[in-house]
Design goal:
Length: about 190
């Protein structure tokens, strides 16, 4: 997503409803996911297209793994499970990793023990009871966008910001042991 730092992937373990899987994939595509994946049994891609009107699996890399042990995530990806379990970090208190793969469990069960063991972090959405899988995925992706996106600060009063976010600019390089000779010569020439 433009202006957002890092990258992320979205995955499903043991999801049975094609509509849910399709809605998650479509939402991930809209939020700028880098890749999609499924683990274990999952609906066929043709079936997910009833809800995935963006046809995301034709636009993003898609991986299918038989089990949590078979997963081969990209280097530096931190696996984040989203589940209502004891000890899970409440989503509003979670700092999303720059490189992450989020995995959501089946509609009427939980992430497998093997998957939870693979997770670097497990987060939960602080609701009174479980919510729809596609809604949960959208909330997590939106929260990630708030953390890693570049938006103007919210005002104290109701309403929107007074102007656009300041554009990030890089300053001059800082060197720990003096300016290298190559750069020192170019600075002298421009003076």
């Amino acid at each position: 997503m433009e202006g957002s730092r890092g990258w992320f992937g979205i995955g499903l373990e043991g999801v049975s409803k094609p509509g849910n899987a399709g809605a998650v994939f479509r939402t991930a595509h809209a939020f700028g996911a880098a890749f999609l994946f499924t683990v274990g049994e999952s609906p066929g891609l043709a079936a997910t297209r009833i809800a995935d009107t963006s046809d995301s699996t034709r636009h993003l890399p898609f991986y299918r793994w038989a089990s949590a042990d078979a997963m081969a995530l990209p280097e530096r990806a931190r696996l984040v499970g989203v589940e209502l379990v004891e000890g899970a970090i409440p989503l509003p208190s979670f700092r999303h990793p720059l490189q992450a793969a989020y995995v959501f469990g089946p509609e009427r069960a939980s992430l497998s023990r093997q998957m939870l063991a693979r997770c670097d972090f497990v987060v939960r959405i602080p609701t009174r009871f479980a919510i729809n899988l596609a809604v949960a995925a959208a909330i997590v992706m939106y929260d990630r966008l708030l953390v890693h996106g570049r938006f103007p600060e919210r005002p104290v009063a109701a309403g929107g910001p007074a102007g656009p976010a300041e554009r990030h600019s890089h300053g001059r390089p800082r060197f720990r042991r003096g300016v290298p000779a190559l750069l020192r010569e170019s600075e002298e020439g421009s003076a």
